[in-house]
Amino acid sequence: MNSDTQRDDSSMSPEASLAARLDALESRIAYQEHWLDTLDEAVAGQERRLAQLERINALMQEKLRDQQQALQEAEMAAPSPQDEVPPHY
């Protein structure tokens, strides 16, 4: 037991002792429910943020693939130095 619930039980009637213990338990349950709700909200927020980051990541990967493909196409379309005619011809 913590110091909040420790009392001199010899001076209390059994009913009063039981009521004090019940009050302490109800207080602890209310506190735990509050923290559970707080943690639930935090987890839900993190889940939303993770989903958003996953969508952003997918879009960035798609853009990167498009840019790599465009770069490869540009390299293939550009004439290579061997294909160029020297200026004296």
**Main sheet specs:** none
Q: Structural class of the secondary elements?
A: mainly alpha
Helix content: over 70%
Strand content is under 5%
Termini separation comes to 99 Å
The counted number of beta strands is 0
Radius of gyration: 35 Å
The coarse silhouette is rod-shaped
Helix count from the secondary structure assignment: 1
Query: Which residues form runs of ≥5 with pLDDT under 50?
Result: none
Q: Provide the residue-averaged pLDDT.
A: 87
Along the chain, the helix and strand elements come as H
Short recap of the structure:
Helices cover 72% and strands 0% of the residues. It is mainly alpha-helical.
Give your account of this protein's structure.
The chain is mainly α and 89 residues long. The chain has one helix and no strands. The chain is rod-shaped, with a radius of gyration of 35 Å. The mean pLDDT is 87.
What order do the helices and strands come in, and which of them pair?
Blueprint lengths: L13 H64 L12
List keywords for this structure.
rod-shaped; 89 residues; single chain; mainly alpha
